[in-house]
Amino acid sequence: MRSAVLLLLVFAAAHAAAVVTDGLLPNGNFELGPAKSELVNGTVVKGGKAIPKWETSGFVEYIESGHKQGDMLLVVPQGAYAVRLGNDASILQRIPVARGSYYAITFSAARTCAQAERLNVSVSPESGVLPMQTIYGSNGWDSYAWAFKAKLDVVDLVIHNPGVEEDPACGPLIDAVAIRTLYPPTLSKGNMLKNGGFEEGPYFLPNASWGVLVPPNIEDDHSPLPAWMIMSSKAVKYVDAAHFKVPEGARAVELVGGKESALVQEVRTVPGWAYRLSFAVGDSADGCKGSMVAEAYAARSTLKVPYESNGAGGYKRAVLDFVAVRDRTRVVFQSAFYHMKADGTLCGPVIDDAKLVGLRKKPAARRLML
CATH fold of 2-181, please? Predict the structure, then answer.
């Protein structure tokens, strides 16, 4: 009996040690490449297991930074190499995970010569579609986050280009694939909102100064920002203090989609009771200048918070009091307008340090901008 228990403990410890850790996946930056004999015409990958730690299918190219395609120069953001997914091509890696846990995948992608590119991301048995028509990063690269719940002990991560172009080499570049375990946030004292400071979220790639795009819920069944939903059709940008200025803590959310994206959390409330929502509005020091307006909604109350940005960082605080009309109330943040930086990339106001408290007795309507 004692031997059997010991064997189970050893097995459990071995499994726990094998579970993937936060950071780049094995060869997640593709710096280990195929042998020259496994490349056709210098770039086309021959054989499904030519790239270490990855399985490939379809028209996959192994691209070195500075590779020229016609008049276009291909640049790799992390290290010296990336892969390009041509017509109906995919890359796959098997990942040991903890069954029942939540994870966020982060990876960088760039369009090449096709205009209406999209990527299918799946972790068996779940999948999502990430459109790439909108470019948010000033250097042509964007980092995307996609979340999943592990339903098996080992899952297959697949990134697939479903497109079929006249030129089979017209497809997105993929680089720096990473993972982070997500821990469902709990309520903290003095705040009815979970993850109100946005400290829990996807992995930030080293030196990726363009942040991480969090897709809307129509494209991702599980949010990479635990407790928050991204509604409508555009993404929001997750930013960190290492590369941006944030009002509080280490992370915040930049509303880059105008009214086409909304940051939403649903909370339990008591109809007829009064509540106070407080939050910070600012800019992330990414060069986004101009007159911004962040909007907050709760129950039947609305607050528009003007913020004049010089693009160098800063913030102001705002308060919205409201009376609940249902037993569940949606707290919503969005940008009233689209904003663009001088290089033409989308940007917007930053939201951080969101707190919700109950006041119980009904106050007079109050909207403050501090």
Answer: Jelly Rolls (2.60.120)
